[in-house]
Amino acid sequence: MSVADLFEPLTLKHGPAMRNRFMLAPLVNQQSAHDGSASEYDLDWMSQVAEGGYALMPTGATTVEAGGIAYERQLGIHSDDHVPGLAKMAAFIRDGGGLSAVQLHHAGHRADPSLGGVPARATDLTTGEVERIRDSFITAALRAERAGFDGVSLHGAFGWILSEFLSPLLNDRTDKYGGSTENRARLTLEVIEGIRRATGPEFQLGWRLSVERYGLRLEELREITADILDRELIDYLDLALWDSAQIVQGGVFRGRSMLSVFTGLPRRGVRVGVAGKITSARRAGRILDEGADFVVIGRAGILRRDFPRQVRANPAYESPKLPVTAQFLRTGGLSERFINHMRRWPYFVNEREA
């Protein structure tokens, strides 16, 4: 395939098609109000990326419960009071011609008590508490639908609560939510099925999955994913890899590309995208050759909010090299709050020149 293929439309099982093969990664940026409401900085960010040429633009991790917070100034959807601000974000995306989604998030055992978070360890929760969290995801999806979003994406990566339940290291429950692979996947599946039942026939549903750390087992994740794809329970899988080119280092898939482990699965009508150091036009095009349906753009989208437009204009486009100065990000339109968030990664912001 050529870079031009990145600009071919992509139909989804529910709702409108993606206008091209670019999805913006769900980027936490710590620029909302302290109560989780969308701020002027959130709206400015969304207006910038809405004009950037992406097909699908999700919010960053958005809390489904107040106690599930992980970051200061994290966007929220755990209250009806959040709906008006979220509706403005959805409108910016719609006016820019793209599809919108809210990434639904609960920090689980990683919730931050200093921010009012209540750590919810898979092992310690009662069955009733697990079911309450499940229902909070479903209620949050209904709020997203009411706010005018095209869909939601479940944050099932990086050890947050859905990922936590999948892990045999973090989940040693003995009830229906622990033990076997099927039981540990139950919370994710109940959330997916509950949202599908509660929302309208055009509402889109994605799932973000990671495979590294937190005791996750690749073979189990592939089995769970195979079932979800075979039953067409979601519209798209967002495979969050540290590096989209990474090779499996051990186990039965040793020597294969991590991406191929999942793109090799029958997917029926479900679309599969991948994130992980996709910073050039050529790499984005190769991702399609390797079996993915679309690419998920993170750091390259922070560096240039219009990455898809840059690729369209220049098939040899490459992102600016890291690290960059704070002034570079500032000049590009990032808020000071977003820049401060990016300082968490020294490889991204060069403080000596900031």
From TrEMBL:
Protein keywords: Flavoprotein, Oxidoreductase
Pfam families in UniProt: Oxidored_FMN
Gene3D superfamilies on file: Aldolase class I (3.20.20.70)
SUPFAM superfamilies associated with the record: FMN-linked oxidoreductases
InterPro entries: Aldolase_TIM, NADH_flavin_oxidoreductase, OxRdtase_FMN_N
Domain NADH:flavin oxidoreductase/NADH oxidase N-terminal: 5-313
Domain of life: Bacteria
Coiled coil regions in record: none
Name by which UniProt lists this protein: NADH:flavin oxidoreductase
Source species: Paractinoplanes lichenicola
